[in-house]
Request: fold
Amino acid sequence: MRPIVVYDTNILISGMIWGGTPYDSIALAQRNRVEAVTCAEILDEFSEKLTTKFNASPLQAAEMVAELLTFHQSIKIANQLKGVTADPDDDKVIECAVVGGATHIVTGDKKHLLPLGNYRGILIVTAADMLAQFQ
Reply:
């Protein structure tokens, strides 16, 4: 059985803009080494940050989202999971992982997500950790 992975917005942005280890981690899903799961809330945040923080045009952001959707399964979440971390934006990532049956969350969030280590048996790891395990 392949691992099921939710990529946090920071990994998606780092990987899609700068490449490197975050991109290599995302590429595991492109190469069918892992199954990637996401939700509209993560993709919306990704698109919004691309346009507001990285000066991407709305068309460029939409093209990046479309590219991600070629190898991510999009699921619906109810936005009912609250208060798991001090950052409410992280709740959608965890809820997506729970609803999507994920085995891993890949993130660069050293302040809120990585310190958890896991949530309900879902491992919370860095892109480097993911690569080391599944490359």
About this structure: Residues 29 and 79 are 25 Å apart (CA to CA). The mean pLDDT is 95. The longest strand covers residues 35-39. The chain is about 50% helix and 15% strand.
